[in-house]
Amino acid sequence: MAPAEPLTNTILYLDGVSVSFDGFRAINNLSLTLDKGEMRAIIGPNGAGKTTMMDLITGKTRPDKGDIYFDGAHDLTRYDEAEIANLGIGRKFQKPTVFECHTVEDNIALSLKGPRGAFRTIFDRRSASEPSRIDEILAIIRLTDRRDELAANLSHGQKQWLEIGMLLAQEPKLLLIDEPVAGMTDAETEETARLLRDIATRHSVIVVEHDMHFVRELGVKVTCLHEGSVLAEGSIDHVSQDPRVIEVYLGR
Ligand SMILES: Nc1ncnc2c1ncn2[C@@H]1O[C@H](COP(=O)(O)OP(=O)(O)OP(=O)(O)O)[C@@H](O)[C@H]1O
Ligand SMILES: [Mg+2]
């Protein structure tokens, strides 16, 4: 059933969502609301259902029951993956997937939203508005001075940033980012927190991470999932002091 209120300030609404795999309930009556323009950090132990939640939002997995609404009246359970991407939900998986044999700039150009084919983007003259959009994205992802470098030559952290830039080129309303700082250096991790804070000024973001130092740096509301439901929600201090969160997650 559609939410009773129009939820004009809500970008994402999950209510009573459950999904089982071979009788195992990976998501169990999960309810979560994300405001427009909000960035939310999701934490929780391995197997808590964090990635499965993203699979449900993006249409990769269908819920057995429950409601998922996006940006007003879009019932995401009725759309397929491509349609959900077109509605404005961009997803970044854990492993970076960039075009290694293209330059940083062309990776962004190839990803730009619009009626351009890949060939046209690379070989045609770019439209007047494109260079500035590319410049803007390169600045956000801290790769302006690497723009002519082959993506293959970037560090692991820089490849993650480039892939975030490729998502931004699609102009999503909501970005889902799964464990962005795994394998990054400490300096890259801290820069990633700043980068995501910059992005969150113009987009709604859900970021899943185990790195609690990074989550603290984000400075946003935190939701801790456990056994497919919300265990605790609030500020990082509130959540990290919750005895149940300490027991199932932080005290490991
Ligand atoms: N497509 C699937 N088929 C079967 N089981 C699945 C599927 N997707 C997820 N699961 C199971 O659901 C549970 C939740 O997994 P999920 O990957 O969502 O956890 P997570 O919170 O992302 O964990 P991690 O922190 O390790 O990434 C796990 O027990 C997992 O094995
Ligand atoms: Mg996961």
UniProtKB/TrEMBL annotation:
Q: Which CDD domains match?
A: ABC_Mj1267_LivG_branched
What is the residue range of the signal peptide feature? Answer: none
Domain annotation ABC transporter: ranges: 12-252
Tell me the keywords, alphabetical order.
ATP-binding, Nucleotide-binding, Transport
Drop me one GO molecular function for this one: ATP binding
SUPFAM superfamilies to which the protein is assigned, alphabetical: P-loop containing nucleoside triphosphate hydrolases (SSF52540)
Do you know which InterPro entries this protein is assigned to? AAA+_ATPase, ABC_AA/LPS_Transport, ABC_transporter-like_ATP-bd, ABC_transptr_urea_ATP-bd_UrtD, BCA_ABC_TP_C, P-loop_NTPase
Respond yes or no to whether keyword Translocase is given for this record: no
Query: What name does UniProt use for this protein?
Result: Urea ABC transporter ATP-binding protein UrtD
